[in-house]
Amino acid sequence: MATGRPVERSRTAAYALVRRDGDVLLVRASDQAGAAAGRWFLPGGGIDFGEDPADAVVRELREETGLAGVVTGLVAVLSDVGTRPDGGERLHTVRICYAVDVGDGDLVAEAAGSTNLAQWVDVRAALELDLMPFARSVLARP
User: Fold this and answer.
1) What residue spans define the domains of the chain?
2) Which fold has domain 7-139?
3) Which long-range contacts (CB under 8 A, 24 or more apart) does 120-123 make?
């Protein structure tokens, strides 16, 4: 912020919308997530350089929930701009949200990562949680 203006940065991420019998799979942000700690969102995260977004969402799903998934379609592409709480950075985030099917398996929370809990939640109950705005937007779609 040498010029007195916040640094501007872009981030592209991929997220999984996983539904099962009226429930949706959500993860909770850990203390490592800074201002987002304790908030709920769809499993997913940043796309590595050169990584296909569909591969990224499957990788992130496994890291955050322990479940293997298969992408079945595109749900939404969302874009937003926000300023970090310290005012030092403006972040433009592009989020690619995929429909993903998973097999049976036990949920396993990410060890020492950006999330600390994975949970199946009734969709109506999910909308009552402290959801990240993008997750609320995706879950509110018909």
Assistant:
1) 7-139
2) Nucleoside Triphosphate Pyrophosphohydrolase (3.90.79)
3) 120/20, 120/23, 120/24, 120/25, 120/26, 121/23, 121/24, 121/25, 121/26, 121/40, 122/22, 122/23, 122/24, 123/19, 123/22, 123/23, 123/24
Q: Which residue has the tokens 């992408």?
A: 71
The DSSP H or E segment spanning 111 is none
Q: What is the pTM of this model?
A: 0.91
Tokens of 98: 């995929």
Over its length of 142 residues, how does the chain's per-residue pLDDT go in tens digits?
Answer: 456 677 999 999 999 999 999 999 999 999 888 778 899 999 999 999 999 999 999 999 999 999 999 999 999 999 999 887 777 789 999 999 999 999 999 999 888 888 999 999 999 999 999 999 999 999 998 7
